[in-house]
Specification:
- The structure is a single chain.
- With 134 residues, this protein is an alpha+beta fold.
- The protein contains three helices and six strands.
């Protein structure tokens, strides 16, 4: 939190320099908009990741993802899954939004070579899908 505040202070100082020394209103406003837009983008991604979920009802798997606040649903059956692989969050095999810090791992589900969906690798999820994990 402190680092974020310090970054905002740096941009405020740059904006002040544009207003005061360069006598540029457009430049000052542009500099102050940069951290505001970046913060909005990051918060949107975080909110989308927090809202996404996987629900299992009988033999159906409902995967709900959000991209830029737009809800996308996918439906699969257990028979659609041919394999699953545990990957770290930085891997290019994990598609879409993901956390890539502190060794976060995901289970990536596939039908042949086709990517189906991902889920965070927790003991509970590994137990449910253990027959598919290599």
């Amino acid at each position: 939190m402190l680092c974020g505040i310090l970054v905002f202070i740096i941009f405020c100082l740059l904006s002040f320099a544009c207003f005061y020394y360069a006598k540029s209103i457009v430049g000052g406003i542009s500099v102050i908009l940069i951290p505001i837009l970046m913060t909005a983008i990051i918060l949107t991604h975080i909110r989308d990741m927090e809202s996404a979920y996987v629900e299992i009802i009988d033999d159906e798997i409902y995967v709900v993802d959000y991209y830029w606040g737009i809800k996308k649903e996918k439906h699969f059956t257990f028979s659609d899954i041919t394999s699953a692989e545990i990957c770290i969050g930085y891997s290019h095999k994990v598609k879409g939004y993901r956390f890539g810090f502190a060794g976060m791992r995901y289970i990536v589900f596939k039908n042949g070579d086709k990517y189906l969906f991902k889920i965070i690798d927790l003991p509970e999820t590994a137990e449910i899908f253990k027959q598919y994990i290599r």
